[in-house]
C-alpha cells in the first residue's frame, strides 16, 4: 500500500506508477534509510511521541531489517513499494504491527530522502578518497621504479624536452592530490543534517536537531528548512569532483595509450588489462585505458544533467529532485571503477627504457640546451634561438642529431661554440640543469617523490 492512500479514490495508472516509482534505484539507500529511522525514533522519545519501550522495539526490528538488507540488498527489488522509504516502513509494520505506523510522526520523505542521500554521499566519499589515495600510491611506486627512465616530453604532441617517466608519474600525483583536496572540501559542506526539517517548514515537534545530527555522525544540523529539503549542492559538488577527476584520468589514459602505440612503443601493458582482436591475431589492445578515457563522457553528462534539473526549480522540494540519484550513483560508481582500474594498469606496466631513451635522443629535444649554451657565452637568448633554429634545419637536412654535427659544422652557425658543447647537449645535462623546484632534474624528482611518499604515508 502507498504511504498516501487516504486522499485518493482511484488507483494509480500502472504506467504512471512505474514512471513515478524510484525503488529500482533508490534501494541503494536502504541502509541509510534504516539508520536514519533509528535516529528519528530516538528523537521521538525525547518529545514524548514514543515511549522508551516502544523505541526499543522499533530499533530492534529496524536492526534486524538492516541485517536482512545487508545480506541481500537486491531482494528489495522484488517489492512493488514506491520507494525505499515506503519499503522500510512497510517491512517495519509487517514486523511490529501498528507501532510501526508511529515512526513517520513529524517526519517527511523530503527531509528523509535528503538525509539518506547525504549519509550515502558521506560513505561513498570516504571510499572515493581512499581510492584516490591508492592511485597516488601506485603512481609513486611506479615513479620510484622509473626514476632514471628518460623519455621525450611533449608539447603540441611534438617532442619538446627530455623528461623522466618518474616525473610524468608525479604530474598525475599532483592532479589526484587536488582531486583529494576537493573531496575533503566537499565533505565540510556536506556534513550537515537536514533531518527534522519536515516537508519544508520544519518539524512541529521540539526536537533537538543538533543532537539528532550528532547521532547520525553529522557535524551539526542545517540552518534553514526550506533550503535543507531542496539543497542538492552536495550532489553537484560530488559530480563536479568526479567530472574533473575523470578528465584527469582520461588524460592519464590517453598518455599511456600513446606511449603504448606501435609508433611510440615506450611501454608494455600487462596481459591482465588488455584484450585481443577477434580477427587480427597480432593485436593487444589497451581496452582498460580506452574505457577509462571513454567513460569520462557519461560522468560529464551526469553533472550537466543535474545542473539542468536543478536550474530554475522553485523552493522547496519538487519531484524533479528524484532525478538526482541515478546520475550520481552511476557517475560515482564509474569514477571509483576507473580509479581502481588505473591502479591495476600501473601494477603491470613495464617501461621500455632503451626505446624511451632512444626517442628522447631524437627529435631535437636538446635544442633548448644549445640555445642556453650560447646564452652562457654572451649571446642574447632571442638571437641564440634563431641560431639554433638554423642549426636544427641543417641537422634535419643531414638526417642527424644536433650532437652528431661536427664541431666545425656547429661553429659555422656561431664561432662561440667550443668542444664543451657536446656534454651540454647530452640527455643527462638536459635533465640535470632543470634543478629549480618542480623541475625534472634527478634530485628534484627524488625530492618530489619523497614528499609525495610522506604525504601519502
Ligand atoms: N522518491 C523520492 C525522491 O527520491 C522521495 C521523496 C518523495 N517526496 C515526496 N514528497 N513525494 O525524491
TrEMBL record:
Its main location: cytoplasm. Keywords: Amino-acid biosynthesis, Arginine biosynthesis, Cytoplasm, Lyase. One of its GO terms (biological process) is L-arginine biosynthetic process via ornithine. One of its GO terms (molecular function) is argininosuccinate lyase activity. It is found in: Cytoplasm. Its EC number is 4.3.2.1. It comes from the Bacteria. Signal peptide: none annotated. PANTHER family: ARGININOSUCCINATE LYASE. This is Argininosuccinate lyase. The lineage of its organism: Bacteria, Pseudomonadati, Pseudomonadota, Gammaproteobacteria, Enterobacterales.
